[in-house]
Amino acid sequence: MSAPASTTAAVRMTYREACKQAIRAAILADPRVFLMGEDVARYGGCYAVTKGLATELGEERIRDTPLSENGFVGAGIGAAIAGLRPIVEIMTVNFSLLALDQIVNSAATISHMSGGQFAVPLVIRMATGGGLQLAAQHSHSLEGLYAHIPGLRVLTPATVEDARHMLQPAIEDPNPVLIFEHVMLYNREGELDPSVTGVDIVSAKIRRPGRDVTLVAYGGMLFKTLEAAALLQVEGIEAEVIDLRVLRPLDMPTILGSVRRTRRVVIVDEGWRSGSLSAEIAARIAEEAFFELDAPIRRVCSREVPIPYAAHLEKAALPQAATIAATARTLVKGG
Amino acid sequence: MTEKVHLDHAHLRHLLTAMLRIRRFEEKCFELYQSEKIRGFMHLYDGEEAVSVGVIEALRPEDAIVATYREHGQALARGIGMNALMAELYGKQEGCCRGRGGSMHVFDRATRFYGGNAIVGGGLPLAVGSALGDKILGRNAITACFFGDGAVDEGSFHESMNLAALWKLPVLFVCENNLYAMGMALERAEAETRIAVKAAAYRVASEAVDGMNVVAVEVAAKRAIDEIRRASEPFLLECRTYRFRAHSMFDAQLYRSKAEIETWRAKDPVMQLRSWLEQTGLLHADEIDHIEGEIAAEVDAAVAFAEAGTWEPVEDLERFTTMDRVPQ
Questions:
Q1: Residue A153: pLDDT above 90?
Q2: A17 part of the active site
Q3: How many CB atoms lie within 10 A of CB B244?
Q4: What is the rounded distance in angstroms from the CA atom of residue A126 to the CA atom of residue A120?
Q5: By the CB < 8 Å criterion, does A103 face chain B?
Q6: Is B171 within 8 Å of B199 (Cβ atoms)?
Q7: Do domains A13-192 and A205-333 have the same CATH topology?
Q8: Structural domains of chain B, ranges and CATH numbers in brackets
Q9: Which CATH number is A13-192's, of 3.40.50.450, 2.60.40.10, 3.40.50.10490, 3.40.50.970?
Q10: Who among B119, B129, B323 is closest to A79 (CB)?
Q11: pLDDT single digits (tens) A217-236
């Protein structure tokens, strides 16, 4: 059965609007769902994601919290165990370190530690990444740190479609799910196909097919990587771009399937190289597909510095499309 | 409506029995630790029994509990079976957490027992959330949150007191002030050592009570819970108590004197109640012997149960790291 054309026309909207629609829909769909965090209600959200929602849904469902990250994240865990489906917003991943104890020592452990008596159906959303000249305490990409922790699911919606649809399955997941929204994506516009009513929170997706080299990216890096692929295409190099979407658990079949076809891989990670998610992916490719590679695994990561304020320094610290393209070019054409 | 504490024979017998069960259970745990049946960290409650027994006596079945790593007392007082608890300490899959939690992480779905938390102060935010959940879901339940004086040093204590007060949540914060955070004496850790006084900073009602007197604790807890239900606000109950034994099984107790321990031993909550009951004739020695006999049999049965328990297959190691569904 096909729906009328008028309802299937793609809608153009910002990533921010997609996040907002996802929150509104989730709260309207289930009385157990509510959102709490710093300045989410009257201020409208630090990145304006929840602007207007408190007026529409009430301050019980869009709940302002004091600046007590460890306290309100822990409260989210307790409320989830007590039967609610909280969405906790942490302003940025940097502030989530104040709640690291509750996330790592409680949210991630309680189901296992209790022998399966309790689950923690909690969603924690937070902004991540650099590019806004916010310097070293507001710009880091620490999602890889959370991807280290058993018991957590870690999502990085990059597209408007994922921003709109990843939240609902995250809420339905019986386990704690962390959603990282890259700050450079909020203003980005994309097409939302109304016929798509849901997405999975399991698989990586090939965003651009190609035969010569696999570029693995996620979150804010996806679009820089697609940009790099476009640069390479001009030179006759067809790069395949994988959007990880889920950092834990990793969808290795999709990554390995691509690498086995292209025989070359560059992993792009806004996190630092040392002990990073990119290191994990590289190790797994080496473990599983070493003899199918035609070239060494390469990585493009942030430089090993706290992200600086000055625009030129910040740009130099973060992975850029030109660097990604140059790295891939060397792999394909030889250094 | 205040539920009066009836100091009749049946109730006092029950209080004594509840404290003796914890005492004798843990004496056995100590032996079992020496014989290496129990391993890991184990923190005994010896001397503090009146706190958990008195407070939990004031709770209703629908209420929730968040406790600490020194929670054998709360677990037994709340009604978690001695068999399941002992098997947990053995690490057997018949244990309440299938041997995954051990002494420091006792959980029990049936009694809303939300751990067993080995991060000092880690349980307080969870208690806030539990009470928030109950409030939003319209349950007429409170959450009793036990923590030690060490947790008062942590930011989570202050964040949680404020959140509970701000959101008018039914949390009974129970500080088991035993004067030491491991080896750190309260007066060396806190500028203001009267913990109950701190509640004023959060506009939380509070009271300090003799934590060595089970009846006093029960009366204070009932009064606090009446106030929580009446005002729909949290309450901080500071129970002044003392742990007779070491912090854990690895503690030479260099930080306190034997004389100090002996001074507190004279206030032993179990002996206090027992002497008073015998002196007043409310409970005769032969009846106490009878209770002791029943408890000894229960402890023996728990040890037998744990001994006969089985090891979870290693193949199931990763089970429950993530869940397929939310248990109902």
A1: yes
A2: no
A3: 15
A4: 18
A5: no
A6: no
A7: yes
A8: 9-309 (3.40.50.970)
A9: 3.40.50.970
A10: B129
A11: 999 999 999 999 999 999 99
